[in-house]
Structure formats: C-alpha cells, structure tokens
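Researcher: Please predict.
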Amino acid sequence: KLELLIEAACDEASPGEERLVRRLDLSDAIYHAAAGGRRVPILKVLLSNACQNDCAYCAIRASASVPRCTLRPEELAAAFASMVQRGQVRGLFLSSGLCGDARRTMDKLLATAELVRKRYLFRGYVHLKLLPGATADQVEQAARLADRISVNLEAPSPDRLACIAPQKDLGALLSLLEEAARLSRAGKGLAPAGPTTQFVAGAAHEPDRELLQAADMLYRKLRLERVYYSGFRPVPGTPLAQAPALPEWRQQRLYEADFLLREYGFRWDELPFDDEGNLPRAADPKLAWALAHRELFPLELNKATRAQLLRVPGIGPRGAERILRLRRHSPLRDVSQLQACGIRVERCAPFVLLDGRRPSAQLPLFAPDA
C-alpha cells in the first residue's frame, strides 16, 4: 500500500513523469526539499489514492483504471516513524485523494500528522496539503501541526481550471489559500515556513503571462512563500493523453521569471513576453528585459540604488547587498572587486560602469542582435 501511495504522490506532484517506485527500496521515492535553508530528505505520500474528482491531467482521477488503496492514520504514521528511525527521511509531505466527505478526509490527514508529532514525537519538517472543502478550523489545526501548508490552485483562472478540473472551484481554493496565508502571517508559530501553491503549467494551454500574472498577485496580496510550476506531462488513459507536454525550457523560464517577481522587485507586466504571451526561449527573462531597455544602461555601480542593481544581469540580491556595503568604504574601480562580491562579471560587464569606466571584460552593449 505504501509503495502505491508514494507512487501516486509522485504522479500527483508531477503529472506523467516516470514513476519512481518499482517495489524495490522505498528510498527511491524520497526527494530532497528546501526546508529552513537546508536540503531535507522528504517522504512524499498520499493517505489514499481514491479520488472522486475527475481532473483531466491526473493519474488517479475518478475514472482511471488503477489499483486503489488507503492507509489508516495509525499505519502511515508508524511507517513514517520507522523510516525516520532508519535515517531514510527527515521530513513528511502528506496529501490525499479526495474520497467522500472532504472534511472527513481532511480529519484523517490531521490525525496522521498529530500521531507523527505527539505519539512519535517527530520535530522535523512536515508539509500538509489542504484539501478542497477543508474548514477554517481544519486549516488552523493544520497550521499548528505543520511547518508548511499548501493549496494547489492548478490553473491561473476559473476558465482555465474548468478545462482541466471541472469539479474544482478556484474561488474556494483561493479562500483556503488566503486563510493559510493569514495564519502564517500572524506570527504565532503557525506554519512558519509559509504557504505555497502549485500550477499544472501547460495543461490548460495557458500562456506564461497568465501564470505569472496570477503568481504576482499571490505574492503581493497574500505574501505567498512560493509558487511551483509542475510542467504538464500527458498521462495515458486520461483526456489529455495526446496533448503536448510542456517543454522543459518553458518550465525553466517560468521559474526564472518567478524568481524575478519574488526577489528582484519585478512586476508581471514588466516581463518580456512575446506576442503569444510566452517568455523567450533564446534568453533568460532578466537578460531579455535588460536588452529591451538598453536606454537604462550602462549603469554606474557606485551610484545605483539597490533596485537598479537588481535589474543588472549577473547581479542578485546578495551581490547587490555586497556592492552597497563595499562602496561605503571606497569606490568600485576594478572587476576583481565585483568578483569578490560573487558577481558574474561576464554577464554584468556589458551593462555597467565602474567609477565612470567600462570594465575591461565588457562586451559591446549596442552590438547588433544575434
């Protein structure tokens, strides 16, 4: 049962990817997630792979012909505790298919987490997925038990969601996410790692612009911790079995653009979309933006604000802080000072000045486009 439910969790998280469990060693299905600034081995598992929803992309959709099984909270908590004792995992990511009454299923997830915390005294990382239909009391209980809670929105708009998951209500999902964000922001130790969500990118044929506009709203309005973009992969036997998979380069561009929204102060409408609303393949979004705004460069690094520094290719948040700190003592005059700040000089050189001079490694900024 545990093997099937780990397998189903892998499919739920990344539709159509090759299944990881081959009835060998359960550690094959363990993945490493960022938690508290560290990489932690996590057991990702479902409590049940029975589901009443018939989402068009999902391997365990209601009409799918797959073996179904469910674990009792006591069984799953004991299995997880055994894996912790053997040193296989140091964290738990728990979700479930929605079978029957949503509140009852959510109660079973909470009971599992409570056993893990109170019977087995586990103090490590726990991530709980909130199921559609969970109540406010259940959201609060989840926030007390888990380091992180999340709600999968799956699509960026009601119309897109109706195409791939007609039984789900985006407004209700957003309400759950808003409650999770409110509790996490309260500063009472509830879900301290912050709330997250996930889109199944490409399943509803939405352009990148729609996904990133929705993500920008979530970051600004809810102060969401992360948005994940699970690239769509067709699953045999589903209505989308013949639909094209999202190219890996598009998934990479989405994450690069998302980082600009979260860490660099960009707005969604500043991103370099093409006429179809997608990000360019030829260059990462930050470089593409800089090349489209050549009138802003070259930028004098000794006078630039932090916000301006973050617009320069090759300069990230830590590099910008180091530049600001270093130039308080003396002007920046040499590329070796940039290298000491951890700056990717080969990327930033065409866009900057050092004390009025172009860096020796600089390439022509206004060269004809390749």
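Model: Confidence is low (pLDDT under 50) at residues 13-25, 362-370.
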